[in-house]
């Protein structure tokens, strides 16, 4: 399974001049394998751009992406990684979703498709990444 970070989907949603082509190519490759997923946190990050669930679901449907729930193991791993982040003087707020995303990829043994690899490499070094 390939967990798709929201930044990749936002590239497509916004037709980002720099990243849209790369993101589309990665999504097509993952779809060809029938292995793309997001979790409910990623879903929520995307939802701010849509007025209804139906609109967001109609964007996701052609991608073949499925929504997978978070496990208790994921929540536990996310908390541990976030504690390490805070102990090393991590001060950015709003980063907790990234820790859930990395933890889910780690807990499930999934690959993570993202453009923001730095934090994932540091806190989830065992997770295979697809990144530029």
Q: So how many helices?
A: 7
Mean pLDDT, as a whole number?
A: 94
CATH class: Alpha Beta
Please identify, by name, the CATH architecture.
3-Layer(aba) Sandwich
Q: Main β-sheet: number of strands, strand sense, barrel status?
A: 5 strands, parallel
The tally of strands reads 5
Strand content bin? 5-15%
Sheet/helix structural class = alpha/beta
Briefly summarize what is shown.
The chain is α/β, with parallel strands linked by helices and 132 residues long. Helix content is 55%, strand content 10%.
Sum up the structure in keywords.
single chain; 132 residues; alpha/beta; Rossmann fold; 5-stranded parallel sheet; 7 helices; 55% helix; globular
What topology emerges from the helices and strands here?
Layout: E1 2-4, H1 6-13, H2 20-32, E2 36-38, H3 40-47, H4 53-60, E3 66-67, H5 72-87, H6 96-108, E4 111-113, H7 117-123, E5 129-130
Helix pairs in contact: 1-2, 5-6
């Amino acid at each position: 399974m390939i967990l798709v970070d929201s930044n990749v989907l936002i590239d497509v949603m916004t037709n980002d001049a720099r990243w849209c082509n790369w993101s589309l190519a990665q999504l097509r490759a993952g779809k060809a394998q029938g292995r793309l997923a997001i979790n409910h946190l990623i879903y929520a990050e995307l939802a701010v751009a849509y007025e209804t669930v139906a609109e967001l679901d109609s964007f996701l449907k052609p991608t073949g992406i499925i929504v997978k729930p978070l496990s208790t193991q994921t929540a536990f791993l996310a908390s541990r990684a976030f504690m390490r982040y805070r102990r090393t003087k991590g001060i950015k707020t709003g980063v907790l979703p990234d820790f859930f995303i990395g933890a889910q990829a780690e807990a499930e043994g999934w690959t993570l498709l993202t453009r923001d690899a730095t934090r994932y490499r540091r806190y989830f070094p065992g997770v295979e990444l697809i990144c530029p």
